[in-house]
Amino acid sequence: MDVQKPTKKIKRRRHDSSDILFRYAHLLGFGEFHVKFDKETDLKAIIAIHNTKRGPALGGCRMVPYKATARALEDALRLAFMMSLKAAITNLPHGGAKAVLIKPAIISNREAYFERFGDFVNELNGRYITAVDSGTEPADMDIVSRQTSYVTCTTQGGDPAPYTALGVRRGIEAAVKFKLGRDDLEGVRVAIQGAGHVGYELAKGLHQLGAKLTMCDINDIALERCAQEFGAELCSPEEIYDLKADVFAPCALGSTLNLNTIKRLKVKIVAGSANNQLAHIQFGLAMQERGILYAPDFLINAGGLIQASALYVHGDIQKAHEQINNIYETLMEIFERSKKEKIPTADIAETIALERLK
Questions:
Q1: Is beta strand 43-49 parallel, antiparallel or unpaired with respect to 32-38?
Q2: In this predicted structure, what is the pLDDT of residue 15?
Q3: Residue 108's Cα: distance from chain center in Å?
Q4: How is the chain split into domains, by residue range?
Q5: Ranges of the chain whose pLDDT falls below 50
Q6: pLDDT score recorded for residue 6
């Protein structure tokens, strides 16, 4: 059978990556983003400032070897928006921002590299306060502090991972109380996805309270350390979704909770430290329909931001402990409201945060 070719060429509308990213920025209600390139150090930096209505924007500096600039910018926009939600839901006097550094294959002079980044931060005149994030550490913030005062999480303040883990642990305690009716974690089975800095600290805290742990990670050394110190059982990254447990704690990459993985879960609670755990916010409904209680990620993992804010604003780490403990009460309120209104917890938390940003 002959197939006739169309006599007219169909014009297809194409959108380049910059057009899509500007639309994404508009959708998230962005304020501004800035780009900096330094030839001598090979610094390629993006600072996305989502919102400053509640105060200067605070967010970490992430250094990752992105394969494309558009991907780095998208990450900066998405994470800065999440930082605004974190600051608002925890009533911090900050807006949200994120710095993203496209990590070069070789950093020939790390001091010069972060000095130039410090200059970049300083040029924004206090609208952005930087801090540590994936790929950076307190010693890097020490270097940044030579060039600008708009920085926190230096070596004097310490590693934010224990504070993030503390918030997640308090969130798990709230979820266990609400869902299982228990005031303790003795014998509660927690499946932790990720044995990095926060995953390790979370495992440590849960182990001290008597929880039983199963963990996975692509880093065998980090995983074995958790097995030896906390008696954690080990599994492969693919098996973690199929484990029967009380709590699933995503503490690695984001967007791991999609329709496929949610269907496989055999847990009653999802509560972890990863950012942007839901591949789409609508998947919160899928968990609700399965009877899984979800602790919204940008609230439960806000401990690191709270620590950074306490150090910058108050110079008092005790203030951070008080505010992190409040995560428990805030989650209980969200859980109660979700049950009463039959609305997913993620939707309720985002609504509260966005109302505070107006």
A1: antiparallel
A2: 55
A3: 29
A4: 29-82+95-144, 161-347
A5: 1-13
A6: 41
